[in-house]
Amino acid sequence: DQQVKQNSPSLSVQEGRISILNCDYTNSMFDYFLWYKKYPAEGPTFLISISSIKDKNEDGRFTVFLNKSAKHLSLHIVPSQPGDSAVYFCAARYTTNSGGSNYKLTFGKGTLLTVNP
Amino acid sequence: KAGVTQTPRYLIKTRGQQVTLSCSPISGHRSVSWYQQTPGQGLQFLFEYFSETQRNKGNFPGRFSGRQFSNSRSEMNVSTLELGDSALYLCASSWTGRTEAFFGQGTRLTVV
Description:
The structure holds 2 protein chains of 2 kinds. Helices cover 0% and strands 56% of the residues of chain A. By secondary structure, chain A is mostly beta strands. In chain A, strands 2, 4, 5, 9, 10 and 11 form a 6-stranded mixed beta sheet that branches. A 5-stranded antiparallel beta sheet of chain A has the order 1-3-8-7-6, with no helix packed on it. Chain B is mainly β. Chain B is built from no helices and 11 strands. In chain B, strands 2, 4, 5, 6, 9, 10 and 11 form a 7-stranded mixed beta sheet that branches. Chain B is globular, with a radius of gyration of 13 Å.
């Protein structure tokens, strides 16, 4: 049962245009969402996150939008650059204990973004 | 501050053998998680250790095990290797109560 889904395995965008990566989830207990970027032969690196109490978080060229009613989040990259070409993973967190200190992350399968010069 | 270090980077093993992978977290991080990445499957959670105790576990067979030492370093062991165990194994560490996990470069395991 995949609780975090990235339905687009790949996305190709022209340099300077907007890249929109999508993520859907099924577990309403998720309270925090993250995006990671991964280059080949490297580990994923944290990009941006958003709490479930917000609907938007912006950091430079990267903006994450959260639609809780639709259980959907998206990552916008504007403008896209060739160096953004990587696999992007969406991840969702829920707290596994009542003390609020035990978290578990669930990842999607990733979307390969290619930004063409 | 040094990042998460995983050793070895590459490993080739034969079916039926066992393997141990090592992970040194960022200094001060007490939580260490392990993930398996295979083509088309994304990052699948194996287990998480905190203060030498396994706190969470994914849906992997008992051949996959791990442990954490008092200095927060962690090891992952896979026994009776199968061809399907070939994957990139990633370790991530995080500070207590924090969400953003920092990943190592991974160990590429090939089972032949």
